[in-house]
Amino acid sequence: MKESEAAIEISEATLKQKKASLLKSKAELNNAVSTKNGAISNINDFELLVNNLKKNLIRQKLLFEKKIISVREFELNKLEYERSIFQLDNLKSVLLSAEAVIQSSQAQIQIIKAEVEEIKSLIVQRKLTFETQKIDLSKTVVISPIDGFILDRQDRKSTRLNSSHVVISYA
């Protein structure tokens, strides 16, 4: 019976660990969703910026071709446009990464939920086994191989009874 009690305690401790893992995975999912939403917002902002910089670059090119602005001025505008495209690509990478983390976290949460349910079932099963063992033990009858009374007994070192136990009665 002690083994059954220990098995129940171990299963309950494992259940607590799995529930903690579930909370951690849900927090990671929430962080990834926040990262994704932030990336989407930044991407939208940068797409507007890139479009404006592209329009500006086209105007700057026309001005350059008409010799109204210098090469340096045109090159600075072109560099700003190219940098914004690079930043936009980086933000898109952040978005893809966040989406991958979200999918991974969702899968991990499903696995942990299944493990929690499995452990709950195992605990119920172990508690039922323990109760069955208690019932079986209550039905157990100890039968003595000797009928009657022992009137006198010699003390031996190997016996578990001390010398005060002179008479033992079996019913």
Fold and architecture overview:
- It is a single chain.
- With 171 residues, the protein is mainly alpha-helical.
- The chain is built from 2 helices and 2 strands, in the order ααββ.
- It has helices spanning 2-65, 71-138; strands spanning 149-150, 168-169.
- A two-stranded antiparallel ribbon has the order 1-2.
- The longest helix has 68 residues, at 71-138.
- The mean pLDDT is 86.
Q: What's the SSE blueprint?
A:
Layout: H1 2-65, H2 71-138, E1 149-150, E2 168-169
In short:
The chain is an all-alpha fold and 171 residues long.
Attribute tags:
two-stranded antiparallel ribbon; mainly alpha; 77% helix; 171 residues; rod-shaped
The H-and-E topology, N to C, reads as HHEE
Radius of gyration from the CA trace?
39 Å
The total of beta strands comes to 2
Question: What is the percent of helical residues?
Answer: over 70%
Largest sheet: 2 strands, antiparallel
Strands ordered across the widest β-sheet: 1-2
| Sheet/helix structural class | mainly alpha
- What's the total helix number? 2
What fraction strand? Answer: under 5%
Report the span from N to C terminus: 27 Å
Tertiary shape: rod-shaped
Task: Point out poorly predicted stretches.
Answer: none
Quaternary organisation of the protein chains: single chain
Query: pLDDT average, as an integer?
Result: 86
